[in-house]
Every structure is written in C-alpha cells, then in structure tokens.
DNA sequence: TTGTCCATGTAACCAGTTACATGATTAC
DNA sequence: GTAATCATGTAACTGGTTACATGGACAA
C-alpha cells in the first residue's frame, strides 16, 4: 500500500483544498476510501509544499476563526500523480476483522454467530444506502461528452462500493442460511 | 483493525503451529487474509506465552535444521479468542490502491486506463482460480453432521474471497465497457 | 555458484490511531 | 454550561513493511 501522499494529490488534482477539507472529504464517504488523521495530513502537506508538488494558494481568514490555508496542486505535483496512476497496481488483501471472526465461527454457537452476522449486515446495508444515494446524486451531473470529466471517475469508484456492499449482504444471507 | 494477536490465536485454535508455520499459512492463501512478517510473529508469540494464552508444546529438532518451536493454544487463550469473536465488529474500509488510481482515471488517456484495468483484471482472475480450487478441495472433506467443523468456517471465508474476486472482475468489465 | 528452503530472530523505518492543545462561535 | 464546529498542529503509541543475520541442505 502506498503512502497517503497520493491520496492527498488525488483530491488536490480536482480542486484547491485545505488540510481540513481533505480530512472531511476522506473521512466522510466520497468513495470507499482511506481515513486520515490530522497528524498525517498537515505534516505531509508541508513536506509536499517543500518539494514543490503543492503550493499555498492563499489563506482564508474569517476574523474569529483559525486561518484556513488553501493548497493547490502544481504542474509537477500533477506529473507525479499521473506517473503514479500509470504504474501497474497489485492485488491488495482484504483485511476485515469480521472475516477472521467468521473463520472462528466453529468455536461459538450457531445462534451467537447468527446474531453477529445480522449485526454486521445491518451496518453494510446502511453503507449501501449511502453509496446508492451518492450515485443518484452524481449521475445527472456528469458531462457525457467529456471523456475527462472527474465525476465519471468518482462514480466508477462509488459503483465499486455499491457492488462491494451488495456482495457483503449476499454473503451474509448465505451465512444465515447455512447456520 | 485489531492486532495480529487474534489472527495468531485463530490459527492456533485449530492446531499447534510454529511461528514459521503461521507465517506460511497467512502469507500463503488460505483465505483472503492478513500478511505478517517474522518480526511480528515471533515477538508476539513470546508475549502471548508470557501471558499464558499459548504454551510451548515441544521442539522439533532435525539435526541439520534450526529447532522448530511448536506452540499450542491454552484454555485461557481459547477463552480470549472466543470472547473476541463474540464482540461486535465494525465495517472496515476497503483500501485498494487501484481504486485510487481509478479515481484518477480522468487524468489519463482512455487507452492507458484500459491497459491498467486489463492488468489488474488478470491478477484477480488468478486469485479467483486459487480460491475456487481451494473450495473444490475442501468441500468434500466437510463433516455435515458436525456443526462445529472448522472446515465449514474456512469454506465460508474462502467463499467470501470467491465472491470478492467475481465482483472485481465484473467491475473491471464494466469499466472496460465505459472507457 | 548462485539461489532457495528451512526456522529462528533483530533493527530500522514508515504508516496509522488516539489523544491532546488552542480559541472563538454557535447550538442545545 | 456543555458540547460541537471550525482549523491548525503536536505527541505518544501501535501496527506493519523491508531488510538483514545465521547456517546447513539441496537443486539449477
């Protein structure tokens, strides 16, 4: 897995953002993505600024509020991002505690397992609803004549999320039948 | 995400293993799981031994080879594992570099993206074949009369893997159509 | 002779989480 | 008066990756 560096550049390639904005976009649910903490975002932005991948576009100061530092991507930052995007990717392992718990289901009673599956199923149902709503919101705003519309890329990724949540629900149903 | 501690106990609950065996089982592909390095396994086993979750069952010494330390789970280790398995789980984020690259697809040419998708698709196809073979191998060995057969739990998890790889392939095909 | 397998382990480093700190403002 | 939001940042800790070290056996 690569550093969060590319995740930051990915968002900045679309629009100028502050560290705080980046945190919101990542920890909110624009796609089934990363989480980041402030301790990663702010130092990384400073580093990238020093390396010229990003530059301070301006500071928004609303008197009573802390100053907001808006960063924009530089041409060289964009190059680095494009370069990375073109590098071949590898398969990532799924790391999900619930899979490990399911692997241990033989240790517990079927009723207990059933309760566990139902609990996780509910949470994934909620995510599915969020992703579906997001797709419904974005789809009419895509410009189909533009092969470089970022929204189309966003939808592809959220679509992955929808498919993933559906798979999770199907799998849960399958477990419930066999338990 | 929880510590590898539970991953180690999960494997030891089924059979006594050495640190090396654990590494092989995890980094090989019994399920779509964790990877671990020796630097995590050996110290963690020592810690767990000190806490009485695990104990040294014996040492296998084949003259010319390094001594192999076999650990087995203790009743208290089993308790801890069962307790953890019964704790409610949360939804885990999918963290896959390729999703981030797909999110950047608007930055590159459709042809370049097509090549990227085809490359990752191939790798996921291979994984699917592995998982399918694993299921075919395990299924006839399950004891259906035993509701606590660990093999059934293993199959459930590998089945998740199969479904996941199918989803990935479908999604790739969908991308290839729209690019 | 170069490399891989066996089996243990250590060292150095990078990534990620949780918690804390500031300080004004708004909402309950 | 308590908590949340905005926006920056630091500190301490845990988790994870990569590389290295030993040393005999065996295969290309």
Automatic annotation (TrEMBL), chains A, B:
Residue span, Transcription regulator PadR N-terminal domain: 8-81
Transmembrane spans: none
Occurrences of domain Transcription regulator PadR C-terminal (ranges): 94-177
Protein name according to UniProt: PadR family transcriptional regulator
């Amino acid at each position: 897995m690569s550093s969060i560096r590319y995740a930051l550049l990915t968002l900045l390639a679309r629009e100028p953002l502050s560290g705080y904005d980046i945190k919101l976009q990542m920890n909110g649910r624009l796609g089934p993505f990363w989480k980041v903490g402030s301790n990663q975002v702010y130092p990384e932005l400073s580093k990238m600024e020093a390396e010229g991948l990003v530059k301070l576009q301006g500071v928004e100061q609303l008197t009573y509020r802390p100053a907001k530092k808006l960063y924009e991507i530089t041409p060289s930052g964009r190059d680095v991002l494009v370069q990375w995007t073109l590098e071949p990717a590898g398969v990532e392992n799924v790391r999900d505690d619930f899979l490990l718990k399911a692997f241990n289901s033989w240790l517990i009673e079927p009723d207990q397992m059933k309760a566990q599956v139902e609990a996780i199923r509910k949470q994934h149902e909620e995510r599915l609803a969020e992703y579906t709503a997001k797709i419904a919101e974005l789809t009419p705003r895509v410009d189909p004549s533009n092969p470089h519309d970022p929204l189309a890329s966003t939808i592809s990724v959220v679509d992955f999320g929808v498919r993933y949540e559906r798979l999770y629900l199907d799998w849960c149903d399958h477990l419930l039948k066999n338990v």
